[in-house]
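Hey, resending since the last one bounced:
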Amino acid sequence: MSRTVVLGDVMVDVVARLSGPLAPGSDSPASNSLHGGGQAANTAAWLAAAGERPLLVGRVGDDALGREAGRALRDAGVDCRLALDPEHPTGTCVVLVSAGGERTMLPDAGANDGLAPEDLPDELLDECSHLHVAGYALIREGSRAAARSAIERAGQRGLGVSLDPSSAALLSPDFLQDARGAGLLVPNAAEATALTGERDPERAAVALAGREGEVAVTLAEEGALWTDGHEVVRVAAEPAELVDSTGAGDAFAAGLLAARAAGAEPPEALAAACRLAATAVTTPGARPPLRRAPTRAGDA
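The structure tokens again:
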């Protein structure tokens, strides 16, 4: 069975669901809750929900939030290899969810910025057939060397490598240079535009594919498209009632990778990715609901 190693951020999300418009300088009633988060952690959890047995490599603080993050991921079926950072706390992200379901994120990387090349040793890479990198690890200066090392070593071993650019607002002109070696990019439309300057998602995807190899672009309610620079495949979105869009892109990436690992061609893989993303938007928080009994409090 093929196995995917996911490298990158593990966060705890402080989710505030607003009941109406944000009132600057005053009070905005909301329903607040804590959830597991972090793009890499979310993708690994959705891979497990899709029937895979992913390996997650990341870094958390030596604190209660970090221990709980690991427990929750193991309960979700993820094989966690989380280094403990001696200096920084577990990363946190304030997620503002509008009454319409759209989200705005305010991340504090915490221990994620200390991710080191040795957190993903060669023997773990040798257990896997694919590496998926959360783009935040490349965007952040502290973790960039670890992400670059992982991509280079995966390529040397002949592993497939995919990369989610993570955040249109944070992408720099150097991102694609740092991303070299990733044969599959999984951006949303805004990220594809930020990387190419092309406002049309298909033109942006074709431009990126000419550089990287394959590109799958999420298009929200319009579905998704895939291209290798020559052929273009589009699929429609799965109908779903929007509850919370947090984690939908991570679920899409997981659905795509799981389908490709099973041998699906681009149309079927895109459709599978859209189905998992549709499940995500109907689920509060960024992770799939637990389908197994949680570990006991002492099972760290």
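Residues 141-156 form the longest helix (16 residues).

Sorry for the duplicate.
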